[in-house]
Amino acid sequence: MEILGYVMALIIGISLGLIGSGGSILAVPVLAYLFSYDEKIATAYSLFIVGTAALIGGIKQYKKNNVDLKTAVIFGVPAIIGVWLIRHFVIPILPDELFVMGDFGVTRRMGMFGLFGLLMLFAAYYMIVENEKKGGTGIIKYNYQLITLEGLIVGVVTGFVGAGGGFLIIPALVILANLEIRKAIGTSLIIIAIKSLSGFFLGDALTMMIDWYFILSFSSITIIGILIGMFLGKRINGEKLKKGFGYFISLMAVFIFIMEFIIKV
């Protein structure tokens, strides 16, 4: 199972290199079901893996002048606060059983993975339906209040599920800052990197024992996959693959719901 897990690490990287998004959302189920980590550790390690992958992609986009740093800071600061509050204060004190409805008890694991499954379905919908990318005019206008609120919400969601949430950030940057789509994508990668790594280092790294050898090994394989994906991306149309990958993520979400709410692993 662990060998399959490392193969999936490579696939996650390849998908990120090919289509620029979506692959990192597979990190949590891979960590949970192939490496048997519990919900706290799986989401924590995912933050590090997602943040590292996004940082590499963000640096590449910055070199292409596809990153607006001011927007990244305005959106990123409240996102950092959101993810830090959740990872440092909320996750460590969540009880094993969140609540009971009749004879059905909802555990912390079910709650976190259930929320993650919903996020996967939203991400899959974004990848399947969003065929044409429409962006702003490029004349940047800031709606500071809404950008701050959106950043905080995305940070909170990231804190609970350990995913980057690029499909939430990109439309927000287009609508609330009027960024054209390429800059929105590049800027979102920097935001994801900052908030994910900040949440990990300011939250999880201070409250739990970290297996650095494992997450560095996993991240290294993911990075190799990104490089392979970038190489293949010059020969393969990533947009054509995105819809199929969206359907795959949908199946993974259904698998999570079955495992957590029916089989109850």
Shape: globular
- Largest β-sheet summary: 2 strands, antiparallel
Structural class: mainly alpha
- How large a portion of the residues is in β-strands, by DSSP E? under 5%
| Overall number of structural domains | 1
Helix/strand order, N-terminal first: HHHHEEHHHHHH
Oligomer: single chain
Major sheet strand order: 1-2
**Percent in helix:** over 70%
Number of helices: 10
Unreliable stretches, pLDDT < 50, 5 or more residues? none
Q: Radius of gyration, Cα only, in angstroms?
A: 18 Å
Number of strands: 2
Explain briefly what this protein structure is.
The chain is mainly α and 265 residues long. 75% of the residues lie in helices and 3% in strands. The chain has one domain.
Describe this protein's structure.
It is a single chain. The protein is globular. A hairpin with a 2-residue loop joins strand 1 and strand 2 (104-107). By secondary structure, the chain is mainly alpha-helical. It is built from ten helices and two strands, in the order ααααββαααααα. It has a two-stranded antiparallel sheet. The protein has helices spanning 2-19, 27-34, 39-63, 69-90, 108-129, 144-161, 166-177, 181-207, 212-233, 238-263; strands spanning 97-101, 104-107. The protein has one domain (2-263). Helix 1 packs across helix 9 (212-233), helix 2 (27-34) packs antiparallel against helix 3 (39-63) and helix 4 (69-90) packs parallel to helix 8. The model has no long low-confidence stretch (mean pLDDT 85).
